[in-house]
């Protein structure tokens, strides 16, 4: 006997719905075209699962979410040429470089400093124990 599946529409953005689903021991979040002709799903153990649910619940992030979903849909429904993919990969690489070179936030700086402080304390304790 199969386990009953539950579906819960979390948000609607443009022509798409974000649906939280569970069944057979697994949670999913799906992005579906309202027309029913396209769906993408992410398992509960993926980073996208939590990211999608967070964006769906935050009204301020809805414009971003709609653009992101529309981009997924367009890419899934088309066959771009190699020049497009070259440009896309260059843009993606530039995004990754911006992320890598982004300055640390004050919270990240504090966390890093605390980590260093704890490590130094541990070194001192080990040094004292050794005599």
Topology of this structure?
Layout (H helix, E strand, L loop, with lengths): L5 E8 L2 E8 L2 E8 L5 E5 L3 H11 L4 H15 L5 H20 L4 H25 L1
Antiparallel strand pairs: 1-2, 2-3, 3-4
What is the structure about, briefly put?
Helices cover 54% and strands 22% of the residues. A hairpin with a 2-residue loop joins strand 1 (6-13) and strand 2 (16-23). The chain contains 4 helices and 4 strands; from the N terminus they run E-E-E-E-H-H-H-H.
What does this structure look like?
With 131 residues, the protein is of the alpha+beta class. The protein has 4 helices and 4 strands, in the order ββββαααα. Strands 1-2-3-4 form a 4-stranded antiparallel beta sheet. The mean pLDDT is 89.
Question: Which properties best describe this structure?
Answer:
single chain, 131 residues, four-stranded antiparallel β-sheet, 4 helices, 54% helix, extended
Weakly predicted, low-confidence segments: none
Through-space gap between termini: 66 Å
N-to-C order of helices and strands: EEEEHHHH
Strand % is 15-25%
